[in-house]
Write a structure and sequence with these properties.
CATH superfamily of the largest domain: Rhodanese-like domain
Helix content: 25-40%
Shape: globular
Distance between the termini: 50 Å
CATH class of the largest domain: Alpha Beta
CATH topology of the largest domain: Oxidized Rhodanese, domain 1
Number of helices: 13
Number of strands: 14
Strand content: 15-25%
Amino acid sequence: MSKLRNIYSKEEAISQVQSESFSRRTVSFYRYVGIKNPQAMRDELYIAWKALGVLGRVYVAREGINAQISVPEPVWDFFVAHLDSFKEFKKMLFKFALEEPDISFWKLTIKVKEKIVAHGLSPKQYNITNTGKHLSAEKWNKLMEDPDALVLDMRNHYESEVGRFVGAITPDADTFKEEVEQVDLMLKDKKDKKIMMYCTGGVRCEPISAYLKAQGFEHVYQLNGGIIHYMQEVREQNLEPKFKGKNFVFDGRVGERATEDIISLCHQCDVLCDTHTNCKNEACHLLFIQCDACAEKYEGCCTPECQKICALPIEEQMVLRRGYHIQDDNKAVYKSRLRPNLKEVLNKTAV
């Protein structure tokens, strides 16, 4: 089964996608469901989806499946029929991209994981069959008006920075595991409150809502299908969007426009901006927000130091990478020099 993987370089794969004569659908879905043999399931899905031209990132585990993929439009019905052929995946809730990009994924990767989303919780700490109540966009909007409700963003800080629900609590966490730890502290002595939680597509809220229920929280709610499905329902039903800004996504788009509101700032000059980019210095590759002017000024780099490194011959850059890991330093830079007064400034433009 070693051949069940991508064999092309990134450049070759992207070139193939760019030469396609058909359109694609970028879609995400997940389901917590028992899978007896994740490796066999992984291989079966890979063979079928590769033949259909599916691209994307998929995690399969004994507890279920989590997928973000791009499906060729001409084979969409075949793809759905194939997924429905598994009793574990029948009638899946699909969340379609709010903006269809030129390229969201360039290869198909399906991995067997211990968990379909890493949260650091022990199976003894929650029961995945006892989660929070799933709310539609309309019911979510209505409950947000309840003064006894707390809206909790279950995403990382760089996701909530560019888009979030009005008045939401947004933990300053770099990883989902960190956020779980912060949630414990934030919700201490708040078991009488109505806890509303949301994330990109819903998958992160499932184990955390179950964890809160196990901790004795009685009023736990989660946004059905996450931000993506919420915005679809908002547009279809002509509802007022309570989510403002961009929805951060983990593919080639990085972010998709939910509303026209820009609620974040360039990390280098503090102008309104919500464009994420990775530092061009391969030894750094820091994810940060950069406006067009700063992108030109710093040549796509996060600091003048990285800009100087990028100006060196590639051979010298490779030598530096072997002996100096600038990425660790830049984590501190990201939190200090790049956004020294960010929270103070954002308070003036907060949604």
